[in-house]
Every structure is written in C-alpha cells, then in structure tokens.
TrEMBL record:
Domain Aminoacyl-transfer RNA synthetases class-II family profile: 34-344
Name under which the protein is recorded: Histidine--tRNA ligase
PROSITE patterns: AA_TRNA_LIGASE_II
Listed EC numbers: 6.1.1.21
GO molecular-function terms, A-Z: ATP binding; histidine-tRNA ligase activity
Gene: hisS
Known catalytic reactions: tRNA(His) + L-histidine + ATP = L-histidyl-tRNA(His) + AMP + diphosphate + H(+)
UniProt record similarity statement: Belongs to the class-II aminoacyl-tRNA synthetase family.
Amino acid sequence: MTENTQKQPKPQKLVGVKGMNDILPPDSARWEWLEKRVRGLMARYAYRNVRLPIVEPTALFVRGLGEVTDIVEKEMYSFEDRLNGEQLTLRPEGTAGLVRAMVEHNFLYEGGKRLYYMGPMFRHERPQRGRYRQFHQIGAEVLGFGGPEVDAELILLARDLWKVLGLQDVRLELNSLGQPEERKAHRAALIAHFEQHADLLDEDAKRRLHSNPLRILDTKNPAMAPVVESAPQLLDFLGEASLAHFNAVKAILDANGIAYRINPRLVRGMDYYNLTVFEFITESLGSQGTICGGGRYDYLIEQVGGKPAPAVGWALGVERVLELIKEQGDEQAAPVPDVYAVIPDVAALPQAIATLQVLRQQGVSVQMHAGSGEGMGSMKSQFKKADSSGARFALVFGAEELAQGQVTVKSLRDGAGAQRLEALDQAPSWAQSLQSI
C-alpha cells in the first residue's frame, strides 16, 4: 500500500462546550410557547422589545456591576480583541447592556421607556441543574420613572406572567436597600459587627469584609447563618424618603392581593441596586430556587456615562422557569402538522407541491413526505410516517386522483379512517376543514 492510498484517520467528533446546551425539537417548542406568552403579556403592559449585542466592553460590567461582585471577579467570559486590543466580555446579564444602549442612542431624552428583552447570557461557573454557562434571560426594564408605582407594576407584571404560564407555589420576597448614604452608615455597622465575629467568617467573607460587606449577607454557607442573622439590618438605617417609597410599593401590592415576605437579608448580586429589591422563589428547584429577581437601579445610567435618570427592572431565568413548568406537570405538547402529504410517485410532485403551497397560504400546517433520492418510498412507509407525525389528515396524491384533478383527504385520528375526495382547484374552500380546532 502506497503512502497516498493509506487509510486516513477518522475525524474526531466535536461536541459542544460543557454547560452550553443545544435546544432541539421537541424541547424548542416549549421555548417558543413560553416566548409567545411573554410577548403577549408584554404588549398588554405596553412594553416594547429591544435586541442587544451579546458582546460588550468589559468596562461596562466592571463599572456597572461592581468590581468585587462574584460575576466580575470569577464568572465573566472576557477576552482581548486581536485586531485592536479592546477588552470585551460575553454579557453575563442584560441590564447593563440595555442601559448602555439607552445612553449611547439618547433614547431617554424623549421621555421614560418600558422595555423588554430576551436572549442568552454567559457566566463561567460549574454547570448544574438550572445553572448553565450559557443561560437565557427575559428581562423587563422601566427607565426614566422614579416613583414606587413602577416598582409595583413590574412585580404585578411578573405575577401575571406566572398566571399566564400556570405556575404555582412561587413566593415573593421583598426588601429595600435604601440610598447610598444610608447604605454607607449600614456598611460601617456591618463591618464593625463582622469584625467582632471574625473567627466565624469563612475566607470569602473575610475577603469581602472591607470591600463589599453587604454581600456577606447573601452567603450560602450555613455555618455563617448565626452571625449573618444577628447582623444589623439595613431597614433600620432607612431615612424618611426611602421608607415612604418602600411603604408605597407595599401598599400597591397589598391593594392587589399580592402576598410577600420582607427579607432584610435580600441584597441581590449586583452593586447597582438601590431602594426596592425583590425575588420570586420556588421550593421546587432545590438550591436554584430563585426564578426571577430585580429591583431599582437609579444610579446606573449615570455610572455608564448618561445623564442621571431613575430605573427599575427584573430578569427571569428561562431554563429555570421551563424546569418549574415541567416539575409542576404542566408540559406543553409539541406542535404537530395539520396535514401530511402522501406522494406515491415523483411524477406527482409538481402538482402536489403546488396544492400544498395553496394550503399553507390558507394557514394550514403541512408536512410533505420527502424521498431518499431514489424514489418516494412505499405507501405503507409513507402512511407510517404520516401517523407518527401527529397530523390529523393525510393528503394522498395518487395517480388516479390527480388524473381527475382531485386529492384524497384521509382522517388519521378518528379510528375509522374516513376519507373523501376534494378538487385541487378548490383547495382554498376546503382548507379550513383541515386546520386544528
């Protein structure tokens, strides 16, 4: 055997990046079902869609989220652009990018905006149920309005979404982070408290003690629970205006029958929040129980270079919401075609496809049988595929029917297999009878 005729090694099969998942049918139908309902609800609340880049300047997240947050310190996918040396990051969340877009395009100078977005986010962390390296968020943001009514409106919007999706056992937790000066006084009290109990702090808490002590309150370390529970509460440091804002939010929620629990340890994971913060939590997903969270971020617009303007928003994790829907047994069936076209012979293809196009234009969902390149396959195999497709009807384009300008419409779901002949040139008139009710 010569060198040129030696067997070449088989190429190694490539697989996706761990924690970045393919979404294939029929699972993709569940995503479409969710997205459709989100779009419908957002329209009823008069929120408009925005679509934002996946890659942003790294400085946007360092400045907006905070240098000592877990996201910036540990989780961002950052890299240097080889062409110009610019530091770039795959977006780990959506709010900072949306604010950047509003500032860059002077979008708020026309007045306040209600906006929403959908899309993938990226964080380098250990993949587990409900937590992936590429995950998807749906976010709702209100910019340019400082009143408590929009905080409450966003919570009402999320509550209505759970209703639309049929979700049960989702509880709301609420807190206020006050304003910077109030947090500054609370911060000093926190540091003093934790310094008195330094022997009880883990390494992460010790590292955060003087850089971001508020984040210690969000620890997941059960051994630190007693020292965290005894720490000073930010609510005790709120001034009159912050308390009035928080009480107004609660009053609107009370008037709308929304139950909530005040959680003085709720701080969220980004530094940009002030005043109202909230999370929607379920017990059904274990440690990944937060399915939606957000709050007010009145200083972020100025931080990224815009004129000062108030803002508030939330984001939900799509994977977690879909997992919760599945956990509660409310699975959505994958869509099926109305009709499967059985085509016994390649000679029938031109006339058959022309008819199928007319039906599609009338709103009928049609799956056409496709051959292997060596013919269309047997009638038995075609009917088997028609049945497995889930279609309600089969259209049989036999030679005899076509010679008379007709097609056989055969029921696949009534058990009796009833069938009838229909005229090809009258397809618009009988198309509606094929559609799912």
